[in-house]
Amino acid sequence: MTAPALVSVRGLRVAYGDGPLVLDGVDLDLHTGEMVALLGSSGSGKSTLMRSLTGFAPISGGSVHVVGHDMTNLPRRRLRTVRASVGQVFQQFNLVGRLSVLTNVLTGALHDAGPINLAGGFSSAHRRRAMELLDRVGIAHKATDQARSLSGGQQQRVAIARALMQRPRIVLADEPVASLDPRMSHAVLGLLREIAHDDGIPVLVSLHVLALALEHSDRVVGLRHGQVLVSAPTAQLDAATLNVLYDHENDNEEATRVDDHA
Ligand SMILES: Nc1ncnc2c1ncn2[C@@H]1O[C@H](COP(=O)(O)OP(=O)(O)OP(=O)(O)O)[C@@H](O)[C@H]1O
Ligand SMILES: [Mg+2]
Q1: CATH number, residue 45
Q2: Whole-model pTM?
Q3: In angstroms, rounded to a whole number, what is the distance separating the alpha carbons of residues 212 and 233?
């Protein structure tokens, strides 16, 4: 491997409060230019793993390095720097509905400029870049519309433009297509893949639909009960292989059912 990983997680353990380990010895690398699908059933720890990359998970063991920073031992000031370098896309888009599409994208620039920009307005360079990004995601014609007037697929494109506005080093997308129809899901994942491949920004995307992961990702990391059960190039995987992540979801129920029939 030539370039160092932008994200390097080793033996990560996370527990919320006095609860059980929800991540138990997780390893993860993200390299320049790759689109990595994060799979696993509900509660397997996908969101927690993403949160650990932005300092929002209670790490109890192991190591997490993000763009060269050790997240387990980071002064608050540095934490802000790391967060600014991580673009995030969410299931519910998280736009400010009453603001214009353009303003929503511009808020992505606040990460590097701080509150000064809120008072002084955005520079023309920022506005130009925001328009370029809206053009790239195919929403430039909606720039002055209120964000809430857009369809879900359009709003997610705006959210992606906003994430790019902060010039991220990596992008985390937690179930970005869970609220979208199949056609929009493909379009949004195609856009994220383009960001990974063309811009070289690694994208970690959690998904619940195997077919989407198989079609759009370069690599799959599959969690089950907080452990990595699958980690392989997507080309080596198929839906049957990935079913190990879900098959035994109701182990106890299954056992009961078998007993019932005995
Ligand atoms: N803030 C929290 N406090 C306590 N427990 C939490 C918290 N967040 C998550 N958990 C627990 O950690 C485990 C993993 O949750 P997580 O949200 O990471 O799973 P997930 O794979 O993202 O699930 P989903 O597919 O439903 O989004 C679950 O058992 C969950 O209940
Ligand atoms: Mg989740």
Answers
A1: 3.40.50.300
A2: 0.92
A3: 15
